[in-house]
Amino acid sequence: MMDADKAVPGATAVLADFAAGLTFEDLPKDVVDHLKLAVLDGLACCLHGATLPWTRMVADLVDHDGGTPEASLIGMLRMVPVANAVLVNATAGHAFEMDDIHRDAITHPNSIAVPVALNMGERLLGTRRAGVPGSLVLTAMAAGYEVACRVGSAAGTDLLLRGFHPQGTVGPLVAAATAARMMGLDAAATAHALGIAGSLGAGLMAAQEGAMVKRLHSGRAAEAGVRGAELAAKGFTGISDMVEAEYGGFLSAFAGKINIDRAVQGLMPGQDMQWEVLRTGFKPHAMVTSIHGALDALRAVMTDNNLAAGDIARITAYVSHPTYVHCAWPYKAQGITAAQMNLYYGLTMIALDGEAFTAQFTEDRIKAPEVLAFIDRIDAEVDPAIEAEGPGARHMARVTVVTTDGRTLSHTERNRRGSPENPVSAADLDRKYNALAVPVLGEAKAAKVKDFVAELDTVEDIRPLMNLLTA
Predict the structure, then answer these.
(1) What is the torsional sign of CA 159, 164, 170, 176?
(2) How distant is the alpha carbon of residue 365 from its chain centre?
(3) Could you give the 3-state DSSP secondary structure of residue 398?
(4) Which residue of 20, 113, 326, 344 shows the fewest CB atoms closer than 10 Å?
(5) Could you tell me how far CA 287 lies from the centroid of its own chain?
(6) How far apart are CA 285 and CA 297, in angstroms?
(7) Neighbouring residues of 170: CB distance < 8 A, sequence distance ≥ 6
(8) Strands 79-80, 408-413: parallel, antiparallel or unpaired by DSSP?
(9) Is residue 319 predicted with pLDDT exceeding 70?
(10) SS3 52
(11) Up-side HSE of residue 332: CA atoms within 13 Å toward CB?
(12) Element of type H or E holding 58
């Protein structure tokens, strides 16, 4: 993506140059098709999230602040300033653990990129006579995905294991690159947008054990990225070597290592472009992605052997070390957030209910006596064989079930359902969309949104979509 005869700049500059120069014509068809699915999935997550109490609290706060009504709150009947809109909408997108996931970056790009691109598009509609085409939205989203997922992958599990939440730390880069591209910032201004947003990232993983604030990390990331782009457009400066700085840079501070090669992979002279968009998968379970392999493995054991929950005496889940640290802590019914992040609760839902979706995460269900009793049948261990396969096997899981009649049954799930290697079907995504969007919009509006997004790459103006999304 760079000329070979030019001096090699730092990683931050390389990423900014890529994002600023990206055009819709650069996007291969499979990338465009995936991004349209990411938009539909992201909107479904935002719509469902808009109904939840933690999102409503943030929306109430924003309403109290007032300001210029320039961007929509998705699933709500009002408009607010754009930075406040993305704060609410990206909180909603991450509000129920159903947004997409880039495994190596440990980041959920669509819950940030979708509202940022659409809300920034609304601001553009208010400042110019021409419409905002869907192709610009998709291009800006691609910039956000490609920049942030490279940096997040360079940080890898080290960032997570040091206690930082990738959505709150990597997420601002999704938002900054997306917003900068929507605004048409040049490479220098985009670098400053990234340098500002990267300095504002935050989020502690202890939030997963019951705190609503985990959801807010995504909203704050979106707000930081938009603010970074807005300030950069005014000439405000950020950290010029934010990604690669040896002291206090993103990689050195959050990950304790500086993996520049991964941060700019595919963007240097002589390298083949590898689209991070296509390394992003969708989530069929409303739970942390790290345990989806274990959930799928248990479901396979039960289905293949015609087992019911009453047939199970013991379950042992063998997982990677990052998954064990992240998700295998003692379950105490601390709240819905904790239930969605907990391996033992997830396996219990598969055993008892056959799924882990919206109905499995209510205040009554997460503390039901039969749930707490079944959790006592489950153990988890770090599997040395999975660890030996390296970071790429982080989501791999092996589940062993001992039945009440003495049989020992096992299944290994290398690639979770919904991953790029084991994608969910179009029908599965359609069911997920309908389950989340129809209760908010109604069948007619939800169908119109779906039809509009299917043609997003060709529409001349996003205004009809935004009108549909204000329920």
Answers:
(1) negative
(2) 25
(3) strand
(4) 20
(5) 12
(6) 13
(7) 105, 106, 107, 148, 149, 151, 152, 155, 159, 201, 221
(8) unpaired
(9) yes
(10) coil
(11) 6
(12) helix 53-65
CA separation for the pair 138, 124 (Å, rounded) = 15
pLDDT of residue 128: 78
Same domain, 297 and 234: no
Q: Are residues 134 and 203 in the same domain?
A: yes
Q: Note whether 204 and 278 are same-domain residues.
A: yes
471: confidence class by pLDDT, cuts 50, 70, 90: low
Spacing of C-alpha 225 from chain mean position: 15
Q: How is residue 440 written in tokens?
A: 């908010």
The verdict on 150 and 255 lying in the same domain is yes
Q: Is the domain of 61 the same as that of 143? A: yes
If one counts every other C-beta atom within 10 angstroms of the C-beta of residue 272, the result is: 6
The CATH number of the domain where 298 resides is what? 3.30.1330.120
The total domain count for the chain is 2
| Structural domain includes residue 424 | no
Q: How confident is the model at residue 451 (pLDDT cuts 50, 70, 90)?
A: very high
Residue pair 154/251 in contact by the 8 Å Cβ criterion: yes
Over residues 236-248, the mean pLDDT reads: 97
Q: Are residues 234 and 330 in the same domain?
A: no
293 and 277: one domain? no
Give the alpha-carbon dihedral of 252, 255, 257, 258, to 10 degrees. Answer: -60
Residue keyed to tokens 């993983």: 205
Residue 132 lies in a domain: yes
Distant-in-sequence, close-in-space partners of 286: CB < 8 Å, separation ≥ 6: 96, 97, 98, 340, 356, 357, 358, 360, 361
Output the pLDDT for position 217: 98
Would residue 433 count as lying in a domain? Answer: no
419 is a domain residue: no
Query: Which among 292, 318, 316 has a CA at the least distance from the CA of 384?
Result: 318
Torsion from C-alpha of 355, 361, 366, 370, nearest 10 degrees: -30
For residue 409, the cross-strand partners are 401
Domain boundary residue among 372, 393, 413? 413
Q: Do 100 and 150 have their domain in common?
A: yes
Give pLDDT, residue 139: 98
- Of the pLDDT bands very low, low, confident and very high (cuts 50, 70, 90), residue 7 is very low
Question: What angle, rounded to 10 degrees, do the helices at 134-161 and 11-21 form?
Answer: 160
Here the CATH number for the domain that contains residue 129 is 1.10.4100.10
- Domain interval for residue 156: 11-284+441-469
Q: For the chain, how big is the Rg over CA atoms in Å?
A: 22
CA angle 70, 73, 74 (to 5 degrees): 130
pTM of the prediction?
A: 0.95
